[in-house]
Structure formats: C-alpha cells, structure tokens
TrEMBL record:
Positions of the Acyltransferase domain: 27-326
Domain of life according to the entry: Eukaryota
Species name: Trichonephila clavipes (Golden silk orbweaver)
Name of the coding gene: nrf-6
Keyword annotations from UniProtKB, A to Z: Membrane, Transmembrane, Transmembrane helix
A Pfam family assignment: Acyl_transf_3
Single Gene Ontology MF annotation: acyltransferase activity, transferring groups other than amino-acyl groups
Transmembrane parts of this sequence: 28-46, 114-137, 198-224, 236-255, 276-294, 306-329
Protein name, UniProt field: Nose resistant to fluoxetine protein 6
Family matches, as InterPro entries: Acyl_transf_3_dom (IPR002656), O2_lipid_transport_reg (IPR052728)
Length: 343
C-alpha cells in the first residue's frame, strides 16, 4: 500500500520534470529559428573579404532547412547540413522525446528503470565499438601528432568519418545522457530520504575514482600511442568514465561537499553566462566564420598572443550578440510560457 502511494505521489513529479523540459525546449525554438534564418538569408550581407560568400541565400539551407526545424539534421552528412553546429540541438530534442520512457521507469519501477538505463548504456557502448572496428575510427585530436608530418589530408578525412558516423549521432551521447538522468534520480531519492551528506569514506573513494577516471581519459587513452584497441576502448568507454567523473562533481557540489570547486562553480558571475549559453553556442559559429571570411591576411604566424586575442575577441562579440538575441526572443518567450503556465 505504501509503495502504491509513493508511486502516485511521484507521478506528478515525473509530469513536472517533463513539463519543465518541454517549456525549456519551447523557449529556445524561436531563438533557434531566428538564428537559423539569419544565417541562411542575412549572413552573406554581413561582411566582405577575399573568401566572403557571394550567394544571396545559403544554397544548402534552401534544400535542407526543414531538417533543422524538425530536429533531424544530425542524420545528414556535414556538407548537406544547413547549420552544422545545430547537430547537438537535434540530439537534445531527440533525447527529450525519449526521456519519459526512462523517467517513468525510474520513478515507478526503480529496479527496472536502472536495469533499462544500464542495458541502454551497454548497447550504446557495444555499438560504438562495432562502428570503430568497421570504419577504423579514431579519436580525433589525440591522433594529430601521428599525422602532422604530411598526412593531414588523411587526418581530416578520418575526422569527418568519425564525426559523421559516430560523434553527432544520438547513440554517441546516449551514455552521458543516461548517466546524468540516473544520477539525478539517485540524488532525488537521497533528498526524499534526507540523506544529503556523504561519509568521509565515500568522499575519499569518490575523489580517488574521479582522479583515476580523468587520468584514464586524458592520459592513458588520450595521449597514449595510437592503436585500434585504444580507439575501441576510448570510443566505447571513454564517455562513460568522463560522464561518471562529472556526475561525481555534480553529486558532491549539490550535497555542499564540493569544497573549493563547489564554491567556484557557485559564483554568481556564471549565472548570466549560463542563461546566454544556448544562444552563445549557436552564435559563436557565425562570429568565427565572420572572422575567417573577412580576413585579408595572406598568412599568419601562430603565437599564443594571437590565439588569446582571437579567443577573447570571439568570446566578447559572441556574448554581446547573444545578450541582444536573448533579450529580443528568448526572454519574451520565457515570459509568455510563464504566463501560460500560471493561467
């Protein structure tokens, strides 16, 4: 009887979580559509330079704009996508649509829910390994030193295959998403049971596991000698280790046991930046393209000064434009949704 009552009590929570995610998606869709339209139609008129586009409307967007608005553009090749960075927006929406399957399972039948999450993660990892073997995929940046002496074309080609075959597909990011979902449910259960703090033993083991996972991801797998086995392990299981590491940070910070890291991540300066993160994610691509297409330099010697200057310039203008775009579209949409929700 108590189990039935707890399930009934948790059902509104599932609906609330789903509704919150749905409102978040509805809030960003108009902004996404506006940025997509600007890139397709108005961006060519925004500058000039030796390699500046001469078309009136982006020819790729003429053919495939609807893929973006239906959030399936990540199943296209890169060359056929209207707005390449939006592959993650599509994945985000696709995960939102399958969220109820896992949420309802976790809240109503926790054991079955955790088994479903674990099986999905295992299936995703196996699929990563199979694709890595079939297409000889490698992890992109870590392999650059092996191709720097004259095989850059092969490196670029391999990167494109890796990106189109694995990186921008939903099953590549499914492990990370489900680990976050499961960890969030676990945190919710702890709050219900008033178990907010962790023992010293758990904290020590958790931080040791965190350090080992990061070490494996960025040293053992990332910068080790290139081999097929390394690529299989990294593509198949590297994401799990990294997601678990970030999950541990989330866990200790929400329990207010994160120490310096928790205090740093809680600084109020990050709040406005976080609210602009989605628009900045989309707009930074156009800012970078504007810099590249409008450049008149024949060649440029690499230096740390030029690199940091570029990073600062792109970041500054990205957030300025993102702030304006957010005020024009995202904030009004948020208020409309809040008004609808309250009435």
């Amino acid at each position: 009887m108590m189990h039935v009552e707890s399930v009934e009590a948790q059902s509104p929570l599932v609906c609330e979580v789903w509704k919150s995610g749905e409102e978040g998606q509805l809030r960003i869709v108009p902004l996404y559509a506006m940025i997509l339209g600007f890139y397709a139609i108005l961006f060519p008129y925004g500058g000039s330079g030796p390699v500046w586009p001469t078309y009136d409307t982006n020819p790729v967007c003429k053919e495939s704009w609807w893929w973006n608005l239906f959030f399936i553009n990540n199943f296209q090749t890169l060359w056929k996508q209207c707005f390449a960075p939006a592959w993650y927006v599509a994945i985000d929406m696709q995960f939102h649509l399958i969220t109820p399957l896992f949420l309802i399972s976790l809240f109503k039948w926790p054991r079955f829910g955790y088994c479903l999450v674990a099986l999905s993660i295992c299936a995703s990892c196996c699929y990563h390994c199979i694709l890595t073997i079939k297409y000889s995929l490698f992890q992109n940046i870590s392999c650059l030193p092996n191709y720097i002496d004259g095989e850059l074309d092969s490196f670029i080609h391999g990167n494109l295959i890796y990106f189109e075959t694995l990186h921008m597909k939903p099953f590549q990011n499914l492990c990370t998403y489900l680990i976050g979902l499961g960890w969030g449910h676990y945190r919710r259960k702890r709050e219900i049971c008033n178990k907010r703090s962790n023992s010293m033993l758990i904290l020590c083991c958790g931080w040791i596991g965190f350090v080992i996972s990061i070490w494996i991801c960025f040293d053992v797998l990332y910068f080790s000698e290139e081999s097929l086995l390394k690529h299989i392990v990294y593509n198949g299981f590297g994401g799990i280790l990294f997601a678990c590491s970030m999950g541990w940070l989330f866990h200790v910070c929400t329990a207010k046991q994160g120490g310096f890291i928790g205090h740093f991540l809680s600084l109020k300066i990050f709040l406005p930046l976080s609210r602009l993160s989605f628009s900045a994610y989309l707009i930074h691509f156009m800012v970078l393209l504007h810099y590249i297409f409008s450049s008149t330099k024949q060649e440029e010697t690499f230096s740390l000064q030029s690199m940091f200057s570029l990073i600062f310039s792109v970041t500054f203008w990205t957030y300025i434009i993102s702030f304006i775009a957010s005020l024009l579209v995202e904030v009004p949409m948020s208020r409309v949704l809040r008004w609808i929700h309250n009435n």
